[in-house]
Amino acid sequence: MAIIQARSLTKIYRRIKKQDGLKGAFKALFHREVVKKAALDSFDLEIDEGECIGLIGPNGAGKTTLVKLLCGIIQPTSGSCDVLGFTPGMLKNEFRRSFAVVMGQKSQLWWDLPASDTFALNREIYDIPEEVYRANMDYFSDLFQVKDLINVPVRNLSLGERMKMELIAALLHSPRVLFLDEPTIGLDAIAQKQIRQFLRQVNQERGVTILLTSHYMEDIRHLCKRTVVISSGKKIYDGPLDMLLDRFQEYRVIHVTFERETEPQLDAVEWVEKSPYKAVFRIRRDLVTPTLQEMLSLYDVDDIRIEEEDIGNVIERIYHGENGGDSCGQVS
């Protein structure tokens, strides 16, 4: 059953455009040129309970605007949205207790205090029963292995450790929906992996519905079976991530090692690396089989490894409407 619904959701921002200098400022007092920009344009979305949805798109596409609208932080210009049976913009207490939001570039932790103080404050704000608070603290601190860090001042924690504390603070009141806006931004590979494992476990064991925006495609790939692509405020794809990648992943990267010194000559390939005993090239997916057959017949090949094209290149192609069209199409 859908617990998040958006219907023709539109958000238009207005800003004043003025000329440079004192003359421009004086002119703007009497004649203001207003520029309108649709951050979100007739956006439709349905999310079922327990889903983990990846929301991807270039900077300025409207991802954060959508998250803010669903949280009730800002009001839509037109259209409607419903989260857990509530209209977010009304900000009823029952609604605010049912969701949590974590933004990678904004912190709810007090810089000079330990995270335990923030946890205690959230307990009072959300009126969390003592037994629920203790159970959740034990569960999340064990899951993230941060029991020895809870009473350390936030300023003394690493970026990855702070993000773990942010997630614990967001989940202490047992929300049904978790909105995540770039939660792994700036983290190293190890911290990103830990965050992904944590979120996967929370989604699977506790049934928390997650809407995740991220520029790190490994986050989307490891957590989300369904992906929504947004560009210029419009939804251009909604469906399985595998189907999206299969359509736009046009190339493969082939690694070949040779038994003896070799200088291979092949058509229709883009050479990435060439050395006497090794060659790496990029080739269209439909040409992989005939090219490898040709290589095996001409050269003494020791080993072959086939890699999928880098997922970042695939997503960049989607954003720019390549593959013979202006968009990747929409899948229900």
Automatic annotation (TrEMBL):
SMART domains: AAA. Keywords: ATP-binding, Nucleotide-binding, Transport. Residues 16-257 form the ABC transporter domain. One of its GO terms (molecular function) is ATP hydrolysis activity. InterPro entries: AAA+_ATPase, ABC_transporter-like_ATP-bd, ABC_transporter-like_CS, ABC_transporter_ATP-binding, P-loop_NTPase. The keyword Transcription regulation does not apply. Pfam families: ABC_tran (PF00005). Coiled coil: none annotated. SUPFAM superfamilies: P-loop containing nucleoside triphosphate hydrolases (SSF52540). Gene3D superfamilies: P-loop containing nucleotide triphosphate hydrolases. This is ABC-2 type transport system ATP-binding protein.
